[in-house]
Amino acid sequence: MTVAAASVERNGGVPAHQLSAADISDSVLYMAGRDINLHTRQTLSTVPVTRDELAAVRRAWAKRDRQGDLLTTAPAVLEFLKQEEPVVVIAGARGMGKTAAAVKALSDYGRDHVGEQAEAPWVLEHVLPDWEQPGEGLLPSKRCRGYILDVSEEIDGWADPVAVAKKIVAHGDALVKKGSRLIVIASQDGWPASQTPGLGRIVVRATAAPSGREIVQTHLARLYPSVAERAWLTANADDQGHVLTDLLGVDMYPSDAAALALELSRIDDSPHAVETARAAATHWRDVVKKVFTATRENADDRALLLAAIALEGLAPPDVLAASRLLLKEKTSKSVRQILTGPDLVTRLEEVEARVASGKVSFAHKPGYPNAVLGYVWRQLSDVQKPLLAWVKLLTKHGALGFSRLSQIADLLVQLATDEQDLGPLDVARAWATSGDQAGREAAASMLATAAADPTLGTVTRARLRDWAQQDVDPARVTAVVCQGSFAAIYPRQALTCLRHIMGRPIVDEAVADGEKALRAMAEDDFLLPQVWEAITGWIEGKAKPAGCRAFLALLDPKAAPSTVTLLLNDALAHPETADELVTGWCACLADPALADRCERLLEKWAEAVADHDLADDAVVHVLDRVVDEHMVTGPMAAFLLGKEGVAYNSPAIIAMRERLMLRRHERRNHTPHAGDEGAAAL
What percent of the residues of the chain are helix, what percent strand, and what percent coil, each to the nearest 5? Predict the structure, then answer.
């Protein structure tokens, strides 16, 4: 069966897609309308190719390269698909239009060679490389699928590219038998084509980049025809309205060209619309240059501009106070200078801000704040550290920028992706450990967005893994990120991070945050099977301490009531789940460092049964087998028999003792227990 996640924003702010896992089998758990495969090997997550991507390749395909010659990448890939090669690899540098060529070839293949005879509609999907080690984890294998796996940003770092490539090709062979196809997007030299003949035969090299000008013109003509007819893009070079064609450079990256076409499509007949479009299309380059030239000797106004960007939507006096915080000055001018100088609103307007209804705004210049930050980051690089230190102060609880946390996070992650620099994300460490939920959420959102970015994603995910193995503060950052959307996009990598965190030498704040992340993941029906598989694997493998901590965190009926209930109910129906619960309990009970926690959890289970929050039969079914291993020693013995200095007068504990003793009596007398068909075999 198929499990599909609820529609959420799982791709760093891009419109929501559904993540799906294919060909799932084995035990199925039903609870309150929830249908979950608990025991299965989940496939790598996928996101559908968007309607916009399909429209671009079907209706607005740019056929020529920058020299005017016909592009050959997509046709060559299509020929390989027709020949039923197991995998087709598109290798080339960034900006060669590799992904678009893959979508084009798969779309044409589905139209011409799948057609109405297919068992299911032809669907195109991007595969997320969510593996701890390249090649590990199941690639998806639904029928009638065109899969695109982009490893261009990580393939050069593979330790054994030949072995990984062979695994991918072997999977491609299986896909062909199901009527599905796989295209791999690789870097220019990352795919090991020369090392194995079979791996080199399937490579198509993208050596010519599409013409940026043709992409813009074709998109405007085919996707936005009403815009293409406007005077500012006419073919007549003498037309006075012909004012934007100089923006259509042939050497633009395909993605930039498509973005420019979209930006131009928004132009209407309002005053200054074309002027605004030009500024936005050029990333406000001329406007930013003019402002920074005019303020070359005026640090006050430059600080005011940065404060206005950070605090957009607040009142001018708040912006002024924030600018002084950046300059570390209580007041920048004397009373005489203030009274004879320009008023605050005028100063804001001179740096291209507007004040309306007492609030500062840049709504009239969309993209201008990002352009300013990019200019400062590149051209005034010495101010990077002071700028980030200021942001941390500005966003502390109760500070002027605290209410703007999410917007400031968006600005910083956009700066990081624009500049291809993780430096702006450094503030996430302060936010994640601040103790404020808003700060934690902002940090998680910011780093999750960077982790999903096509170019920054690989290095961001690597940094999160590194932080998970460092001191408490960076480890907490990773744990907080794993509580958010990052775990939904890259669950395996999140679990890898959490394995390191849960295995820390001592229980600290990072471990506590890691437990929250695991419980949050387990609450997601799509993620629970992967979480449970990981934890049980840790317990039985080399990460036993991490597994035991995670096990106890997941089975706390106070902290994770629905997950505990779900697992216990599944144990009644599926022996493998019962076995895993018993193994987990025995591993935890055997660890002296976990004795107190095990005792508390046993008490919580007893109390949950008494309160009818957990099913009596399910709890007894598991604990009865645990008693066989730990009746006379450790926390179980203390729970059943008591211990010196501790009075177990709780009615819930007394009732559970009696229930376990009754079960043992029933087993000795071979009395089957209602609802437990497997009891006699235990």
Answer: 55, 10, 35
